[in-house]
Write a structure and sequence with these properties.
The complex is a heterodimer of chains A (about 160) and B (about 500). Chain A is an all-alpha fold and about 160 residues long. Chain A folds into 2 domains: about 5-70; about 95-155, no CATH class. Chain A contains 5 helices and no strands. Chain A has helices at about 5-25, 45-65, 90-110, 115-130, 135-155. In chain A, helix 1 packs antiparallel against helix 2 (about 45-65). Chain A starts with a helix and ends in a 6-residue tail after the last helix. Chain B has about 500 residues and is mainly α. Chain B has one domain (about 5-180, about 205-355, about 365-465). Chain B is about 75% helix and about 0% strand. Chain B has 21 helices and 2 strands. In chain B, strands 1-2 form a two-stranded antiparallel ribbon. In chain B, helix 7 (about 140-155) packs parallel to helix 21 (about 465-500) and helix 11 (about 245-260) runs parallel beside helix 13. The chains are: A mainly alpha (about 160), B mainly alpha (about 500). At the A-B interface, helix 1, helix 2, helix 3, helix 4 and helix 5 of A face helix 8, helix 9, helix 12, helix 17 and helix 18 of B.
């Protein structure tokens, strides 16, 4: 039987796919067709989007009608249930990592790569560490050496960094 | 292609160092829970830009082999699989290690990995040239039908819901469409943004989906602490009698690994699950599985390494990756302007030779490195993630910026990191997404080339036996799991009806 949580997640996924399909159809609606091309640049995206919307609608209909959808796809991630018994995962750290990464990208054009990466590694490292004096000292060392080292190393390799 | 020369070239100092570094990095990352071999491959993609295509192939193939193999160390010693494909190894590896025989458990796993990899290499070398010759006669419609069949297979065989697998593949295709349409040269789906004129960077999407999403997921376990491990390695070398006793299990599991590897998009995880289940079902003592039994470790580890050789066969002969990790290898070749497929053997024979030679030598290097250093590698687990994850994200950012120096690519990477994380949360497989992303341009070009030749008529596709057969297989592969699910639910409803009414409904 499909749990409520799985059904909610599947429904969200199906709605997001319908939105992606609709956006694609809207995006190719005025695409001109080249004279030599019997199909046109819009056709394949259009029909792919139709297939996406159709399949997502079937998924949504199955959820609404209470049919079970199979979960349990083999994850590319290391399985959380393979982790120690009794260990609790903490999703707030994932959110923190995502927000810090976005802030890092936003700061790059203004602060430059070296400063932004040192700041990013300091903040995220501190958030994820257990914040003992030893851990914080290591986080600071890793951030300064890592940020400055990566910046210098990749500039030496002629990679154009902000 | 001169394979002997490829082996000789590989033993030169530069390529050999690349191979050893790649294998070692693969093993270390494979052993660490969280970051997977796929993430390492994605992360290393931008750094192969400045290498020759042969050096890039050597580095990435050795990482691929190391990544698949490394997962067994922590799976065996700590019941923490570093790679998803090592999950099955924990079932017997950890009980054996905990029972006081960690050396034997590791020895079985490492030896089985080497033999499985070597046998799959043999199949890779023997099967690839003839498969490529066969594919040379394919026209645009056959190639299109082949890509379509690959997408359906990926979705139906990647476990979980077929609809969700198909949707993931189709979503990958949708993401590949923005940018310049290669057939007409027109801009498409840029939504009025100049940054979108060239479309999304494939590299940024792969970095996001494989590496950044993995880091976001791993951050949930940032405060995890691990038990101390038993460093005794007595019994790590197996006796000839051990090999003899396992010979049938090794052959069967290798065959399973190679065959599943050849199927598009089905990774090593499924190979090890199927090989383990088969070994248990065919065993005279199935009750011993899960208690620290030799056969369980050997079946799982032989199959996941045999998968590597199998997965490379369709990638180099047809341009269709056999596993998610092989899809990143495919992306690396495309970035070096090398189109994998039947013509690869004539257009870039040195790349094919390097790939095949590396696949075998990396397995030998993996065996030596893991026998010598497995306990040391397992100790890396104790490095807190708070120190590692920020560096990985910064490396990914450098990778995304290295291609074109555009901030848009960095934001694309972060966005697809979030998308990948959310897809995994919804139990939607990422493999079909990435393979759809990589195969969609090929499918579109082939279909449109075929339709131009037939004035837009699809009818000829049904008149060509190979194309028509491939379409029929796709339709059957799509319909079969749906029909099976429908039968199961119908049976369940019938049983429920019998229970409630007391008579058959």
């Amino acid at each position: 039987m499909t749990s409520d949580r799985t059904a909610r997640r599947d429904a969200t996924f199906a709605i997001a796919m319908i939105a992606a399909g609709a956006l694609t159809i809207w995006g190719v609606r005025n695409q001109p067709r080249a004279p030599f091309d019997p199909v046109g640049a819009a056709a394949i995206p259009f029909w792919t989007a139709i297939a996406v919307i159709a399949l997502a609608s079937i998924l949504l209909a199955r959820i609404i009608l209470g049919h079970a959808t199979r979960g349990g796809a083999v994850s590319l991630f290391t399985s959380a249930d393979a982790i120690d018994d009794g260990y609790t995962v903490e999703p707030r750290y994932s959110l923190a990592a995502a927000l810090c990464t976005a802030a890092f990208a936003a700061a790059l054009p203004f602060a430059g790569f070296r400063l932004a990466s040192i700041g990013f590694m300091l903040v995220l490292g501190w958030l994820l560490s257990d914040r003992t004096p030893r851990a914080v000292a290591i986080v600071v060392a890793v951030a300064i050496l890592g940020g400055a080292g990566l910046d210098a190393g990749f500039r030496a390799l002629m990679i154009d960094l902000p | 292609m001169d394979l002997g020369q490829a082996f000789l070239d590989l033993l030169a100092p530069g390529p050999l160092v690349l191979l050893l570094v790649g294998t070692l990095l693969g093993i270390v990352v494979g052993a660490l829970p969280g970051l997977t071999g796929g993430a390492l491959l994605a992360l290393s993609l931008p750094f192969t830009y400045r290498m020759t295509s042969v050096d890039g192939v050597i580095l990435m193939t050795s990482m691929y082999v190391g990544g698949i193999s490394g997962g067994l160390i922590t799976a065996t010693l700590m019941r923490i699989p570093g790679e998803p494909s090592a999950v099955v190894t924990t079932l017997d590896g950890f009980p054996m290690a905990r029972g006081g025989r960690p050396g034997r458990a590791l020895g079985l796993g490492i030896s089985a990995s080497l033999i499985g990899g070597a046998l799959s290499w043999l199949v890779l070398v023997l099967l690839s040239p003839s498969m490529a010759r066969l594919a040379l006669v394919f026209g645009p419609f056959e190639n299109f039908a082949l890509v379509l069949m690959a997408l359906v297979l990926i979705a139906t065989l990647s476990q979980g819901s077929v609809i969700k697998g198909l949707l993931a593949g189709l979503f990958g295709m949708l993401v590949s469409y923005p940018g310049i349409d290669e057939t007409s040269g027109q801009r498409r789906l840029n939504f009025g943004f100049d940054e979108m004129a060239g479309g999304f960077s494939t590299l940024a999407i792969i970095l996001g989906a494989f590496a950044i999403s993995q880091v976001f997921a791993d951050a949930m376990h940032a405060r995890q602490r691990f038990e101390s491990l038993d460093p005794s390695l007595r019994g790590i070398f197996l006796s000839p009698r051990d090999y003899l006793r396992q010979s049938w299990n090794i052959l069967r599991s290798s065959a399973i690994g190679v065959i599943i590897g050849i199927l598009p998009g089905v990774g090593a995880s499924i190979s090890s699950i199927v090989a383990y289940s088969t070994a248990r079902n065919m065993s005279k003592t199935p009750e011993k599985f899960g208690t620290g039994f030799d056969d369980g470790i050997v079946a799982a580890e032989t199959a996941n390494n045999a998968n590597t050789g199998g997965a490379l066969i369709p990638m180099i002969t047809l341009g269709i990756p056999g596993s998610p990790s092989a899809s990143i290898l495919l992306a690396a070749l495309l970035m070096h302007n090398i189109q994998p497929g039947p013509t690869l053997f004539t257009n870039a024979p040195q790349v094919v030779g390097a790939l095949m030679a590396t696949h075998l030598v990396a397995h030998v290097a993996m065996f030596a490195i893991m026998i010598a250093g497995c306990v040391l590698i397992a100790r890396l687990m104790y490095i807190p993630r708070a120190y590692v994850l920020p560096i990985v994200i910064v490396l990914c950012a450098i990778g995304a910026l290295a291609e074109n120096g555009r901030m848009f690519d960095l934001w694309t990477m972060i966005a697809f990191g979030a998308v990948g994380f959310l897809l995994e949360l919804c139990a939607v497989p990422l493999g079909p997404f990435v393979i759809g992303l990589l195969l969609a341009p090929l499918a579109e070009i082939q279909l449109r080339a075929g339709l131009m030749a037939t004035d837009g008529s699809l009818w000829p596709i049904l008149q060509r036996p190979v194309a028509c057969s491939l379409l029929a297989v796709s339709a059957a592969m799509f319909a079969w799991p749906l029909w099976r699910d429908w039968r199961r639910s119908a049976d369940a409803r019938a049983r429920l009806g019998t229970q409630t009414t007391g008579r058959p409904s």
